[in-house]
Amino acid sequence: MSFQSQNPAKSSKEAQNDAAYLAFLHFTAPPLPDPGSSNAIANFDSNTTNGSLQPERQEACRDSHVSDCASICNNNEKFKDMQHFYKNLLQNYAQKRNVSRPVYSCEVEGPPHASRFRCKVTIDEKTYEGLEFFPTIKEAEHAAARVALSCLAPDAIEEVQEDSSLFKNLLQELMQKEGCPLPVYTTTRSGEAHASMFVSSVEVKGEAFTGQGARTKKQAEFLAAKVAYTKLKECKSNKVSTNITPAYHELEGHVV
Asked: How far apart are CA 108 and CA 119, in angstroms?
C-alpha cells in the first residue's frame, strides 16, 4: 500500500511529511462501520464530514503522531550514534571466523539530486538486507551490517552500545561536525597509591561535564566523555522534537 501527497510541496522533505501524514491518518482513522449498525454509523459520522476527518480529529491525530515521532527518535538515538562501528564489527567477525570478507551491494531510489540508498551485505554465503533507505551509501552499508550482526553476533552490538571508550571518539566527532573546539579533559587523582581513584571533567562549548570515578585516568576520561556526549545529544534531540510540530502545522487546511 502506498500513499502520495496530494498538494505541491516546496521541498522533498515537506512532500515526504505530507505523505507520511496521509498514511498515518489512514491507519488511525476509525474502522468502517457495520452496514447493519446505526450506532456505528453515528459514531463514524461524528468524526467525519463528507469522507474527511473533522478538524478536532485531525488535530488529535497530528499531536499523537508528533509525540510518536519524538519517542521513536529518542529510542533510536543510541543506534544512530553507534552505526558507523557496525561495518568494522562485521569485518572483525569475518576475520575471527576465517570467512570471506563482507561484500556490499546497493539499490537506489529517487532522482539524482535526492537519491536514497538501501544496501545488502553478503558474508559467509548468506545475504542480509537493510530495512530502510538512507541519504548516503555509507549509512546504508552500516545499516545492512547491523542487520547481519544482529543475526550472527547480537552480543557484539550490545557491547558496542555499552562500551564507554567509544564516547570519546563520538564526542570529538560531534565537536568537529559542529565546528567547535575539541574537548579539553582535566583529571584529578585521589586516594592512596595502591588504590588511586581518578575523576575527569571535559569542557565542551564552554561547559564542563564530570564523569564518575575510575581506576585509571583513561577510563575516567571515557566516563566524562560519555556524560558530555549523552547530555549534548539529549539537548539536540529535544530541539529536534520541538521542531517536528511546525512541519505538521503546515498541513492544516489540507483535505484528505
From this structure: 9
Instruction: Give the span between the Cα atoms of 163 and 160, in whole angstroms.
Output: 5
Q: How many structural domains comprise the chain? A: 3
Residues 52-79 have pLDDT tens digits of: 444 444 444 444 444 443 333 344 445 4
- Specify the residue for cell string 571535559: 202
User: Which pTM was predicted?
Assistant: 0.41
Cell digits of residue 90: 562485521
Residues 40-75 as b/e (b if ≥16 CB within 10 A, e otherwise) read: eeeeeeeeeeeeebeeebbeebbeebbeebbeeeee
Same domain, 67 and 95: no
C-alpha to C-alpha distance for 116 and 96, rounded to whole angstroms = 33
Is the pLDDT higher at 16 or at 43?
A: 16
Question: How many other β-carbons are positioned within 10 Å of the β-carbon of residue 96?
Answer: 9
Assigned domain for 120 exists: yes
Q: Which domain holds residue 52?
A: 12-82
Looking at the structure, do residues 207 and 238 belong to the same domain, yes or no?
Answer: yes
Residue 100 within a domain? yes
Question: CA–CA separation, 250 vs 25, rounded Å?
Answer: 16
Which CATH number is 228's domain given?
Answer: 3.30.160.20
